[in-house]
Design goal:
The protein is of the alpha/beta class. It contains 3 helices and 7 strands, in the order E-E-H-E-E-E-E-H-E-H. A hairpin with a 5-residue loop joins strand 3 and strand 4. The longest helix has 17 residues.
Length: 146
């Protein structure tokens, strides 16, 4: 088993009025050149947790941080107009909390953050500020929103 100490939360950047099936997510990632879905887990709006990639395999979800991390993606992240928003349903919030807690019992997790929290600290002050985010993903603050 590989060493894992980080959980990185993502959104699928799917508008609130659209669905993204797990198979479609897998196809999207294959078209980008990945060997299957880059995320380990995908949480549907219903709260269903889909296994997308074995945890034993390194993910392809956050450049420079894949080696020791597990990637969790939730369906959504954009409002009906395509703007970044926390579109998680109550079912998704419960499922995400349960999944993160379960992974923390299984692995020595020392860091849980959103994709945007792993953007480069361009001004070198030790804090990733919103103006430094490469993307908005996961469209909520993981530190306060889990």
């Amino acid at each position: 088993m590989r060493h894992v100490d980080t959980i990185i939360i993502h959104c699928s950047a799917t508008p609130a009025n659209k669905k993204l099936e797990p198979a479609d997510l897998n196809r999207m990632h294959r078209r980008m050149g990945f060997n299957g879905c880059g995320y380990h887990f995908y949480i549907r709006r219903t709260g269903e947790i889909c296994d997308m990639r074995p945890v034993e395999k390194v993910g392809a979800h956050c450049r420079g941080h894949n080696e020791g991390s597990i990637g969790i993606c939730y369906e959504g992240g954009l409002d009906a107009n395509g703007k970044p928003a926390d579109t998680r349903t109550e079912e998704q919030k419960k499922a995400m909390k349960w999944l993160v807690e379960s992974l923390k019992r299984e692995f020595p997790i020392t860091m849980t953050g959103g994709h945007r929290d792993f953007s480069p600290d361009t001004d070198g002050d030790g804090v990733i500020e919103p103006e430094e985010w490469i993307k908005e993903c996961p469209c909520f603050d993981v530190k306060t929103g889990l």
